[in-house]
Design a protein that fits this description.
Helix content: 40-55%
Radius of gyration: 20 Å
Strand content: 5-15%
Order of helices and strands: HEHHEEHHEHHEEHEEHH
Low-confidence stretches: 237-249
Oligomer: single chain
Structural class: alpha+beta
Number of strands: 8
Largest sheet: 3 strands, antiparallel
Mean pLDDT: 87
Length: 249
């Protein structure tokens, strides 16, 4: 096998393996790549990994797919996520879930994003109550479906509340902007300049409109400095502790 054939074979193996996983941390992605390099008798290095991921991107976008690099806004962890670039907001879900399950997820997403007062979080009790109104499912069936959504990284549960997880943020941000939130409801993080759809922190002064991602707040503030840069009010101490806990978890 010549070098070009070997490179194509390596790429093919990697794409097939990643498709089956859908979401991997950057370290898990590197491990996957190194194992496939070993199979293909290719020397692994950090620089070769970065170049390889660029090549994979160039290959996949031609067929309307990509492996997107995205950072968690709760703790800063970096992920690679398989995404479908075709403008069909729930394409990825349609391959894993029934039509009724997709309807439930859409409702769940809307309920989460409608809950600005609780920082785009929805209590597990409220989620079960609202889903039971939508479809005739038992509490056990709803809980199992919610666990599937969590396992597939569409939602995450923390302290008894659901919020959008890394895969929803990678796949459904455009859908949220177009179909869920009004333009005047969109909030831009002053640190990363991305819209805030999860991991929202805000000034304790209710009259202040300062908002920031949890992880971005951990970069900007420390224990000695908890003042809002806009109104100079102190950040609520409980909120600051949650920021630190999320980074350490």
């Amino acid at each position: 096998m010549n070098s070009i054939q070997n490179s194509d074979y390596l790429s093919s193996l990697f794409i097939q393996a990643f498709m089956s996983k859908k979401v991997l941390t950057i370290e898990e992605t590197k491990i996957l790549y190194s194992k496939i390099c070993e199979v293909c008798e290719v020397i692994y290095s950090e620089s070769s990994f970065e170049n390889f991921m660029k090549e994979i991107h160039n290959t996949l976008v031609k067929i309307d797919f990509d492996i997107k690099k995205i950072q968690s806004k709760s703790n800063g962890e970096i992920f690679y996520i398989w995404v479908n670039l075709i403008n069909d907001d729930f394409t990825q879900l349609s391959t894993q879930y029934s039509q009724n399950e997709i309807i439930i997820f859409k409702k769940l997403l809307e309920l989460i994003m409608d809950n600005y007062e609780d920082k785009y979080q929805l209590s597990s009790t409220k989620a079960i109550q609202e889903i039971s109104k939508l479809k005739s499912l038992t509490k056990k069936e709803i809980e199992l479906l919610l666990k599937r959504f969590q396992s597939d990284r569409w939602i995450v549960e923390r302290r008894g509340k659901y919020s959008l997880d890394i895969r929803s943020l990678a796949e459904l941000s455009e859908y949220i902007k177009r179909n869920v939130l009004d333009e005047d409801e969109l909030i831009e993080c002053p640190i990363c300049s991305n819209y805030i759809f999860s991991d929202l922190e805000r000034c304790s002064n209710q009259k202040c409109d300062y908002h920031i991602h949890t992880f971005c707040a951990s970069l900007k503030f420390n224990k000695a400095e908890k003042k809002c840069p806009k109104c100079k009010h102190l950040l609520d101490s409980e909120e600051a502790e949650i920021i630190i806990e999320d980074i350490e978890d």
